[in-house]
Amino acid sequence: MTVVRRLIVVRHAKSAWPAEVDDHDRPLAKRGRRDAPAAGRWLRGCGHVPDLVLCSTAVRARRTWELAAAALDAPPPVVHDMNLYHAGARELLDTLRRTAPGTETVLLVGHNPAVQELVLSVARTAADDALARAREKFPTCAIAVLEWQGSWAFLGPGVARLTAFEGARGQRT
């Protein structure tokens, strides 16, 4: 029996742009602090609780996950990876392919344009118009859920189905 894998891709929540703060250290804006917990509630409500979280080390990504995770009953283990901060879609894919075989669902918190390019690359089909919406815009705190059958090593261009593409507050993007 082939295992169904699930990848949940979250773009970090809206960040602030304070003067003289390094890009890596930018905090969340007020809207980001509101949207991130809503993303967690959406994940919990849809039953999309990951086994593992891969998160960029940027402050805005880390804080997005912290606020989202607070809405979950039992937050999963988190790996903060500096390589995800400047990664392109190819590097994100390579990281995901190294996921342990027993892991069924991974949530990735990252940055655009890489997260959008990753989703558009691996999605072959989509529920309703989710693929068109993801192609048009991948806003802050958007959530893409992809599923496929097979191993993490099998994840690649055109192998997954985009089953959901939502805004943090459960709004269609």
Question: Care to describe what's here?
Answer:
The protein has 173 residues and is of the alpha/beta class. It is 31% helix and 24% strand. It contains five helices and seven strands, in the order βαβαβαβαβαββ. A seven-stranded mixed β-sheet has the order 3-2-4-1-6-7-5. Strand 2 (52-56), helix 2 (59-69) and strand 3 form a beta-alpha-beta unit. The radius of gyration is 15 Å and the shape is globular. The mean pLDDT is 94.
Describe this protein with a few key phrases.
173 residues, alpha/beta
Concise structural overview:
With 173 residues, this protein is an alpha/beta fold.
Cα distance, first to last residue?
35 Å
Q: Quick one: biggest sheet?
A: 7 strands, mixed
Structural class: alpha/beta
Number of helices: 5
Mean pLDDT: 94
- What oligomerization state is this entry in? single chain
Give the overall shape: globular
Percentage of residues in strands: 15-25%
**N-to-C order of helices and strands:** EHEHEHEHEHEE
Strand order of the largest sheet: 3-2-4-1-6-7-5
How many individual β-strands? 7
Q: Summarize the amount of helix as a percent range.
A: 25-40%
How many whole angstroms does the radius of gyration measure?
Answer: 15 Å
Low-confidence stretches: none
What order do the helices and strands come in, and which of them pair?
Blueprint: E1 4-11, H1 30-46, E2 52-56, H2 59-69, E3 78-81, H3 89-97, E4 105-110, H4 114-122, E5 123-126, H5 130-136, E6 143-149, E7 160-166
Parallel strand pairs: 1-4, 2-3, 2-4, 5-7
Antiparallel strand pairs: 1-6, 6-7
Helix pairs in contact: 1-2, 3-4
